[in-house]
Amino acid sequence: MSLESKQYQIVASIVLFNHSYAQLEDTLSSLLSEPCVEKIVLVDNGGAEWAATLNNPRISYLSLGQNKGFGCGHNFAMKHYLDKCSYFLICNPDISFAKGELERLYHFARDGKHKFVSPRIHYSDGRFQYSCRLLPTPANLFLRRFAPRWGAKLDVIYELHHADYTQSFSIPSVSGCFMLMDSQLLKQLNGFDERYFMYSEDIDLCRRALPLTEILFYPDATITHAFSKGSYKSLNLLIYHIKSVISYFNKWGWFFDRERVLANQKCLKTIPMTSPTEKR
Q1: How many CB atoms lie within 10 A of CB 16?
Q2: Nearest CA among 169, 228, 11, 23 for reference residue 102
Q3: Comparing C-alpha atoms, which of 204, 193, 192, 189 is closest to residue 249?
Q4: Whole-number Å distance between alpha carbons of 97 and 256
Q5: Coil, helix or strand for 259?
Q6: 120 touches 165 (CB < 8 A)
Q7: Would you tell me which of 10, 15, 234, 248 could form a disulfide with 200, CB atoms 3.0–4.6 Å apart?
Q8: What would the pLDDT profile of 137-184 be if each residue is shown by its tens digit?
Q9: What would the 3-class secondary structure string for 104-123 be?
Q10: Residues linked to residue 216 through DSSP beta bridges, in sequence order
């Protein structure tokens, strides 16, 4: 059976735009160290033609021909590979991890028949990243960007700072930098909503998944996310960010959103809690 016709355990998708090999090297090395990742799909949204020359049977190159956004890029990979894998990994190009970390996350998902899982995430300097979140209100997303002192106060609840991150638990939303999902679930969801060019598409995906499955945090697998906060440095990215947030709330509701309230209340009632001073 050829590599392209077999059923893979995990297909990992990475969307590139003006990325160099050096920027992607740690991510590729991490993924290639995991036997469960049997195919890595590099989707070139522009400026990464070098990826077509990588000589590795586990790496495939797809070109969109133009930059149609983060979600569109991953959807392009899904169209080619969802029918060929059990799980599909949505992965940023700024991720790295030690050998065995993804294997543990995959076995947790497969053995427990979980359809949507996310690992513990740290920044490059070792700080814990609060990647598990409630569904956002307009205040959560706008204040944290334009009034960070006020936003930081809201983040304590929004980012579940008091959750016990030594345990696995269910949450309404997780960071889109590293999502391991059952391929059939992604088919049901039709992937990302391509109306979001960049930003908020991960929140939207989580929200659409909630009626179909739990989204689970798994503490015993850890990855590192470089996380450059591009919209804080680039006016163009800031504009994309604002447009996406507006699109999100236009779709789901700004101030009257019963589903958001119920999902967040359920999460706050069921997650394990710990002292805010306890080590993560």
Answers
A1: 23
A2: 11
A3: 204
A4: 40
A5: helix
A6: yes
A7: 248
A8: 999 988 877 777 888 888 999 999 999 999 999 999 999 999 999 999
A9: HHHHHHHHHCCCEEEEEEEE
A10: 117, 170
Q: What are phi and psi of 62, to 5 degrees?
A: -130, 140
Q: Are 242 and 250 in contact (CB under 8 A)?
A: no
Contact of 148 with 154, CB cutoff 8 Å: no
Domains, the chain, with CATH or none:
8-270 (3.90.550.10)
Residue 268 tokens read as 């706050």
128-148 pLDDT, tens digit per residue, is: 999 999 999 999 988 877 777
Residue 225, strand partner residues: 95, 123
CA–CA separation, 234 vs 227, rounded Å?
14
pTM over 0.90: yes
Closest CA to 159 of 38, 55, 264: 264
